[in-house]
Amino acid sequence: MSFFDEDATYGKSWGMKEYMDASQTPLIIAAVECDHSPDHGRLREYSPYDFNEPSVGRIHGEGKETMDWLTQEFKPYIDEHFPTIPDRECTFIAGSSMGGLMSLYALLYYNDTFSRAAALSPALGLAPAKAKKMIQDANPRPDSVLYMDYGSLELGTSGKTRQSIGRILTLLMEKGVLLNYRIVPGGEHCEASWEKQIPFFVNTLLYE
Fold first, then answer.
1. Between the CA of residue 103 and those of 27, 100, 116, 117, 174, what are the distances in Å?
2. pLDDT tens digits, residue range 76-130?
3. Pairing relation of β-strands 178-184 and 116-120?
4. What Cα–Cα distance (Å) separates residue 193 from each residue in 78, 116, 179?
5. Which of 96, 97, 33, 88 is nearest to 66 (CA)?
6. pTM for the whole structure
7. Which of 27, 145, 170, 188 could bond to 193 as cystine, CB 3.0-4.6 Å?
């Protein structure tokens, strides 16, 4: 999903390779495969809590297991085989939709590993009450940085949706998270839209 259209789940990637080549941004990007499971693997593996999805039924969240693997096995492998700066201050995480939810979860609960995160169109609406409790129970460090956005078209005109997101943003700021939030004009819930946000979230992740 991150680099090549032919490998993307829906035939469109974020285009990260083109951006990195053109901008010469000093980052090492390590992306993991997802959504190859026939039994809603992405929903399970990328949720920190259980929830009900009307189209598929009850989903048992395995987000903790996913993040334990990522921080205890995947990241150490990358640090060993590539010229990374493994410190927390130089370690970020980013994702969209369910990946955006996981990026937020990682920043809040794996804060000793990740100092900054980008959550594009995070799937907080699947279980709003649980998302709020997740934030309320977290204790991130005061230097934690979060980029978060939603497309204006995916938000629609529902005042209830915007109010729910507003409460979540307030909770994040009350936790001391340094928040950069955007509503993307004309933005949709799709890779083509998220690709256009790369300069915005990369600048936030690297801002000094």
1. 17, 5, 9, 6, 19
2. 999 999 999 999 999 999 999 999 999 999 999 999 999 999 999 999 999 999 9
3. unpaired
4. 29, 22, 21
5. 33
6. 0.91
7. 188
3-class secondary-structure state, position 95 = strand
Specify whether the CB–CB gap between 191 and 1 falls below 8 A. yes
Distance of alpha carbon 201 from the chain centroid: 11
Give 67's contacts (C-beta < 8 A, 6+ positions apart).
48, 102, 105, 106, 109, 110
How many residues are recorded in the chain?
208
- Of residues 199, 170, 188, 151, the one with CA closest to residue 18: 199
| Structure token pair of residue 170 | 């307030």
Indicate left, alpha or beta for 11 from its phi (over 0: left) and psi (-120 to 50: alpha): left
Residue-by-residue DSSP string for 32-43: ------TTTHHH
Dig out the tokens for 121 from the structure: 């169109």
Is there a contact between 144 and 178 (Cβ–Cβ < 8 Å)? yes
Among residues 165, 142, 135, which one has the least CA distance to residue 48? 135
Residue tagged 């941004």 (tokens): 25
Q: What whole-number distance in Å separates Cα of residue 164 and Cα of residue 171?
A: 11
Q: Are 5 and 13 in contact (CB under 8 A)?
A: yes
